[in-house]
């Protein structure tokens, strides 16, 4: 796949007409930047472009006289490519806001570019909680999940049920490091112990040596601090090694519905993990997902794609309220001022540090006998209330937060 998907390929001129407002070049232009072709493509990729398009349509841009365009590009999981693409979009492509950006290393790079250019960055794909901590920006909103929320949701639940010794299998880049760090803190605060860790390159195909180290540690829990194709491959190979049958448990610290689909219930059954969205949770999530699936591989949306939808919807509300999209910092300030409300995440808010606040859910993969049909893969074990789901504002060390 080409690195940059040009305007003729993924540009969606979704509304037309003149608006009595100050929009740069008369168009509100949104760039969806993610992994279009590698290990995160199923959970983000072209599906995030579909989600963004749906948000613009549901917002009713055409009826409101607002012209919105969406473009997409592949950052190839490389920070330099991500940053350069964002910079080119801002400088010569008249892009006003960038969305998605899975891969925390890429997201941290794009975050700096958006701040430098005074544009909007709304991330639904990256995990590192540093985006609302030391690296927070007045131009950024972190929408869907982060490593603190995943660690506290899954880590606490697993330790509470007896999983008090851990060994981490960690993707060797910013996201994996942050997830390992945040989960280790939860385990140790709960009187558990971390017996060891091993780091693997991103997009690995062979986990045998790493799994043998985890097996030899005799830890009760092997924490998978990775995502997408890396999670799928490590779970499959753990099953081949008989690790679970040997008495150790796997804790998927970031798992998506598409991962379960790839693994199958026979392999994935019993996995416990934390998500911000599950397609089959209520009537609103089912209605959205049944509209999304025919537009993207007959696949149910991931929480990242749901986050793109909700984030674009709220961004457009803020731009509409301001009647101006030119000052990125002002748009993000308006996003924080307006309460969030959408059919996928419900009512919520965006804090001063840019953290979007909503409920999270502790999910468990069903046994094959419990599934009633295609994509019926999970059940909700617990709802983590919004007030408890994310790191307390005062603990994040975000320079934007006073006191």
UniProtKB/TrEMBL annotation:
Keyword annotations of the record: Amino-acid transport, Signal, Transport
Domain Leucine-binding protein: 28-366
Alphabetical list of CDD domains matching this protein: PBP1_SBP-like
Cleavable signal peptide: 1-21
Gene3D superfamilies on file: 3.40.50.2300
Keyword Transport set for record: yes
One Pfam family named in its UniProt record: Peripla_BP_6
BP GO annotations: amino acid transport
TM spans (from-to): none
The family this protein is said to belong to: Belongs to the leucine-binding protein family.
Record protein name field: Leucine-binding protein domain-containing protein
């Amino acid at each position: 796949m080409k690195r940059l998907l040009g305007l003729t390929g993924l540009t969606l001129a979704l509304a037309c007409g003149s608006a009595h407002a100050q929009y740069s070049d008369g168009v509100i232009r949104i760039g969806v930047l993610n992994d279009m072709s590698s290990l995160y493509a199923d959970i983000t990729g072209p599906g995030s472009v579909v989600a963004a398009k749906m948000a613009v349509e549901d917002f009713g841009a055409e009826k409101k006289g607002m012209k919105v365009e969406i473009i997409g590009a592949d950052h190839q999981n490389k920070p330099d490519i991500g940053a350069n693409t964002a910079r080119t979009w801002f400088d010569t492509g008249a892009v006003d806001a960038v969305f998605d950006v899975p891969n925390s290393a890429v997201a941290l790079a794009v975050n700096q570019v958006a701040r430098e250019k005074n544009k909007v960055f709304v991330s639904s794909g990256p995990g590192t909680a540093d985006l609302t901590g030391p690296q927070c920006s007045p131009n950024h909103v972190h929408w869907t999940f982060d490593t603190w929320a995943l660690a506290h949701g899954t880590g606490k639940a697993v330790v509470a049920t007896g999983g008090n010794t851990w060994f981490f299998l960690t993707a060797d880049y910013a996201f994996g490091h942050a997830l390992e760090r945040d989960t280790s803190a939860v385990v140790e605060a709960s009187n558990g112990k971390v017996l060891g860790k091993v780091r693997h390159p991103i997009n690995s195909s062979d986990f045998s040596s790493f799994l043998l180290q985890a097996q030899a540690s005799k830890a009760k829990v092997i924490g998978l601090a990775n995502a997408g194709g890396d999670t799928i491959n490590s779970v499959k190979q753990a099953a081949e090694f008989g690790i679970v049958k040997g008495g150790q448990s796997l804790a998927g610290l970031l798992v998506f519905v598409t991962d379960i689909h790839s693994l199958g219930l026979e392999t994935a059954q019993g996995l416990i993990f934390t998500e911000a969205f599950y397609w089959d949770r209520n009537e609103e999530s089912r209605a959205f997902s049944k509209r999304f699936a025919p537009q993207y591989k007959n696949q149910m949306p991931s929480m990242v794609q749901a986050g793109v939808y909700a984030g674009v919807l709220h961004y457009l509300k803020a731009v509409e309220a301001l009647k101006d999209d030119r000052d990125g910092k002002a748009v993000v300030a308006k996003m924080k001022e307006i309460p969030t409300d959408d059919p996928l995440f419900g009512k919520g808010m965006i804090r001063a540090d840019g953290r979007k606040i909503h409920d999270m859910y502790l999910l468990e993969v069903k046994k094959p006998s419990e599934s009633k049909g295609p994509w019926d893969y999970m059940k909700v074990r617990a709802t983590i209330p919004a007030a408890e789901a994310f790191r307390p504002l005062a603990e994040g060390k975000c320079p934007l937060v006073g006191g």
